[in-house]
Structures are given as C-alpha cells and as structure tokens.
Amino acid sequence: MQELTHYIGGAHVKGTSGRFADVYNPATGEVQAKVPLANADEMAQAVDIAAKAQPAWAATNPQRRARVMMKFVDLLNRDMDKLAEALSREHGKTLPDAAGDVQRGLEVAEYCIGAPEMLKGDFTDGAGPGIDMYSMKQALGVTAGITPFNFPAMIPMWMFAPAIVCGNAFILKPSERDPSVPLMLAELMEEAGLPKGILQVVNGDKEAVDAILDHDVIQSIGFVGSTPIAEYIYGRGCSNGKRVQCFGGAKNHMIIMPDADMDKAADALIGAGYGAAGERCMAISVAVPVGDETADRLIEKLVPRIEKLKVGPYTGGNDVDYGPVITAAAKANILSLIESGVTQGADLVVDGRDFSLQGYEDGYFVGPHLFDNVTKEMDIYKKEIFGPVLSCVRAQSYEEAIGLAMDHEYGNGTAIFTRDGDAARDFASRINIGMVGINVPIPVPLAYHTFGGWKKSVFGDLNQHGPDAFKFYTRTKTVTSRWPSGIKEGGEFNFKPME
Ligand code: NAD
C-alpha cells in the first residue's frame, strides 16, 4: 500500500502523527494509498520553514518570481497526461475532464506571469511642496489554503499561484480524498525554480485545518469547500485576526424561456448537470422551464439524451461521459436524497437507482437521474446534492423563475437560455448571483476575470484569481516622503493638510 507524504521544506516527509486516511480508487472502491493526517506540531514545522524562507522570496524582484510561473506553465504542459491520470485515479473524473482541471489552474498561473504589472504601485509626484506619496503592494508573509476534493489541481493553483507570485509563502492543505496531484504540483513548482519552503503541502483533516486557523504567523486563509465548513473557517479565521476568503456550496438554476433553442438548452443541461457526475460547484442542478409547454418540450428532449449517457471508469475509453462519485458516503448521501425526492412527491422521470456496472460493482457509480415537478419545499431542491441528479422546477412566468433563483440561499452560478436580449439583459442585471451565463450553462470566468458567488456561496469580500487575487494576497503600504535639501524649517508638530 502506497503511503503518501507531506511536502515540507522541499522534501517528501512522512507523517508523524500516526493518523492516516484512506485514499480510494472511486471506480473500484479499492484503497490505493493512505495519506498522513498532520497534527498541530507538523503544521507548525511547515509554518516555521515558510516564515524563514519568505522574506528572501518577497525580496526577489517580481520579474524573477514571474519567471518561475512561466516555467511552471511549461512543466504543467509537459506533464499534463501524467497529472490528468493521477487526478482521475483518485477523483474518478474522465481523463479529458481531469486535463481540463489542470488546464484551468494552469491559466491562473499564466495570468500570474503578469505580476510585475499587477504589483506596480501608485505614485503621486509633488503631493505637497517637496513631498511625494507612493503606495506599495507588499506580500502578507505566510499564507495558507484549504481546498476541496472536486478540483484537486485547479483550486490549489487558483490560490497558490497568485499568493506566491505576490511574494508570499503558501501552505496548502488539500482534500484528503485526492492529495496526490497537489503533491506533484509542489514538486513542479520547485523544478520551475521556486525556493524550498515557499510552497508546502501539509495533508490532513480538521486537526490540520484548526492548526492553520489558530497559528499566529499565518496571515491569510483561502478556503473552498462546503458551506458549513466555509462558515466555520471564516468565523474562526477572522476572529483570530486573519484575512479570510471562503467559497462554499451551490445550487445553480438554469432558466429556459419558451423561445430558447430547446436542443441547445437540452445539450447544455446534459453537460452542466451530469458532467463530472454533478460534482462541480458550477454544475446546473435545477432546470427552470418557463411554462408547462416549455417544460414538456424540454423533458422530451432531455430523456433520450440522459438515457444515452455512458457512465464508467476513466479507463473506459473516450466515450465515457462521467465517472464515479468520490466516496461510498457521497454515494449513500446522493441516493438518500433521491429517495427523499420520491417520498416527497417529485416525479422521477429517469431513474438510475438500480445502475450497476459489470466488473465495477464496488465502485461509487451513480446512474443519471431526472426529476420533474420538483417544488421549493423538497429537500432535493433545498440541498446541494453534488451528484448526477437534475431537478426540473416548472415556473409559470419569467418572474416566478427569476424569483426562485433569487430566493435560494446559494448564489454561485446561474444561466438563462433565451433568444430574447431584453429578458437576458434583465436577468443579468437583477439576479443576485455571482456568475451568470446567457446561453452558456457553466459560466466559469477565465483567469483574468474573477471567480466568486454571492449569498451563502461565499464568505468574505474579494473573489478568487484575476485582479482580486492580487488584492487578497498583498497589503498596501503608503509612504509620504520629503527629502529636504537641508533642515531649514526646524521641527513640525502640527498635523497639516497638504498645501
Ligand atoms: P468539504 O467542505 O467537505 O472539504 C473541503 C476542505 O475542508 C477539505 O480540505 C477538508 O479536509 C476540509 N474539512 C472538511 N471538514 C472539515 C471540518 N469539519 N473542519 C475543518 N476542515 C474540514 O468539501 P468537499 O466535499 O471537499 O468539496 C465539495 C464542496 O465544495 C461542495 O459543497 C462544492 O459546492 C464546494 N465547492 C465550492 C466551490 C466554489 O468555488 N464555491 C468550488 C468547488 C467546490
């Protein structure tokens, strides 16, 4: 059995806590490795190393720091297949989807090559007589990130690429479900020229997270995961005086107007609802057709498409649409929510409950499900299912449809499918959700924009990547300077406005 490590001080380090978690192959249900779960002492060792290494890295000029990112991007491209395979093996998503996971992180690293431009300060020449004023963006020091299982490459890179290029040291606590790719990324960053100790991976669970939350030296924490944990980390991190940004769960609605191209809308829902087994925070889990006639046409288009979906292991060839979910517990939770949908009166139009894959009976596969006539009161509507389950809630008007999305507690992503520019424009303007697609089902912003939801999908103010990341990972210092030619005036004791 493979025993994974931490990556501390530029080396693979065995866990010393004596606690481990099993890492499964979700396609077979077999335990393929064990990952060490760090205690507070192991976390403190990593923090000490980071704190010692960080000042020299912050003093390295931004162009040189950017060059590490440039090289890192090359190495990611070189190792793309290897990374995607390792990712699929632990996560279960298909190989093209795993490569997409790496690619979307790579694009953030690519954006970070522009750090010298992003980190330029402001300067006012002659703010007063003989006085100049300038603002610098300086690194925070030691920063940390806690990431979820569903994007084990992209989300760590969303955090560590901007943190590091800004001159910080970064400690990554990845998901204990799929920790191998984060370890590989840390090795690649060092191969790209990053000094030891600037990017470290400390594996663990709540104990390691609490050690991050309570460590005085750690200045900022980024978190992505479920909403209850996001809320906990935000509360405890902020009360410990840290800068914290936490991104939580989602329930993304797609509104289908009567004038929408129904084939395109159905195709979009298939990819956005069932891709990656629905384990995406930007998955569409609720379809809201406007009017019964629209709903009937949509269901008619969806059913044959869903029945054609091929569910299988990542090794099953290019026509596999999605793989298993992450753990047996995740599968049990999804199936119990499906049962609740049936009990609470929704129509299970496509029933995947008896899905089984020959040769993979112990894998965590869940067949695709489609519910119609779902209502606001049902658990399958209120809760994030994070599985291959699409719920159709019929609305009788556009106002009712937009109201549904606006009243839901989550506000990560949403989409509208229509040919009417006026409806689309109104939707984009009024909706209280952070990322909006117009005839685009998964509107994930590119690296040079920012990613973030609203409402219970986020705790904190700044978004991830793009310009916001450069704000999150730096602090501003403003210097007012005067260089007198000699001491002509003597001391000044009054606080005066600039003349
Ligand atoms: P999770 O909340 O279970 O775990 C996320 C991280 O928190 C992991 O590193 C885990 O080890 C740690 N953690 C778990 N329980 C903890 C506890 N009690 N105390 C402290 N730390 C704890 O989430 P997950 O299952 O890995 O990921 C799926 C969730 O993430 C979904 O809710 C999904 O919507 C969300 N997500 C959100 C975004 C976004 O950008 N908004 C992106 C991806 C995933």
TrEMBL record:
Entry-linked Gene3D superfamilies: Aldehyde Dehydrogenase, Chain A, domain 1, Aldehyde Dehydrogenase, Chain A, domain 2
A GO biological process held by the record: thymine catabolic process
EC number: 1.2.1.27
InterPro entries xref list: Ald_DH/histidinol_DH, Ald_DH_C, Ald_DH_CS_CYS, Ald_DH_N, Aldehyde_DH_dom, MeMal-semiAld_DH
Pfam families, A to Z: Aldedh
Domain named Aldehyde dehydrogenase: residues: 13-479
CDD domains, per database record: ALDH_F6_MMSDH
Name the UniProt record assigns to this protein: methylmalonate-semialdehyde dehydrogenase (CoA acylating)
